[in-house]
Amino acid sequence: MREKLYQSMIELTNGKWSSSMIKAFSQSKMSKKFIPSYIKYFNIKTQEVIRHVDDFSTLHDFFIREVKEDSRPLDDSPSSVISPVDATIETFGDITSEGIFFVKGKAYTLHDMLGSQKIAKEYENGKYMILYLSPAEYHRIHAPVDGKVKRQFVLGKKSYPVNKWGLQYGKETISGNYRLLTELHMPNGKHCFHIKVGAMFVNSIELTNTSQEWKKGEEVGYFSFGSTVVMLFQENSIEFSSHVKPRNFVRMGEIVATML
């Protein structure tokens, strides 16, 4: 009953009008005065932010803030896969031979996630990781490895919330959301997907790197509002690091896996 009620409420509010209203307010000059209370509510460390708080013109401007480079040191091991974002590790694990992976007890298929049975086959028996960014986090997105862009495309239309309630009670919370998918050819010869998932009713994922090569740690885009990154890896391509555990928080640049 709770699940059905949640889904009904989200469907009623997840439309163009609500998205437009949220986006318009966050980018309005009026929203600037809410920045101090936003910082206080989410306990955001402003010392690592490049610009002074007063220099941000809107709440959205602050939300996509840049941070000092030395505040996010990169693991420089040639075989490391780093977290592309500041986020909570929602879950991670193995993809089954049928192309299924589980989030909060819900089964997702590679076919639904990737929109192609042919591409999905290439990731069966692989591994996955779900990284959740709360509204408090640094929302710039970075490259997890050095890699050549094999393909890049967009799927989905709506953006259901991807917080713990959305993942538990939502319908197609990840595979149905608006998402920007980038497949990378990694240095070990294997492929991985770096999937940026829109959330909180606003389909705003801005790509800032349009080149065909990504360098580990460089910025590739940013989210507007809280969101999620899904990483998929082919079979026998990586091994998760020992400190990677569900609900652990990782910062961009920290190692989360090692290439095999």
What does this structure look like?
The protein has 260 residues and is an alpha+beta fold. It contains seven helices and 16 strands. The strands form four sheets. Strands 11-7-8-9-13-5-2-15 form an eight-stranded antiparallel sheet, with no helix packed on it. Strand 3 (100-103) and strand 4 form a beta hairpin. The N and C termini lie far apart (45 Å). The relative contact order is 0.20.
* Strand order, largest beta sheet: 11-7-8-9-13-5-2-15
Look at the structure and give the mean pLDDT. 84
Number of β-strand runs:
16
- General shape: globular
Low-confidence segments, given as residue ranges, are 1-15, 161-171
User: Could you give the distance between the termini?
Assistant: 45 Å
Over the alpha carbons, how many angstroms does the gyration radius reach? 18 Å
The portion of residues assigned to helices is 10-25%
Q: Secondary-structure element order, as H and E? A: HHHHEEEEHHEEEHEEEEEEEEE
Count of separate DSSP helical elements: 7
Largest pleated sheet: 8 strands, antiparallel
What class would the helix/strand composition place it in?
alpha+beta
SS strand fraction: 25-35%
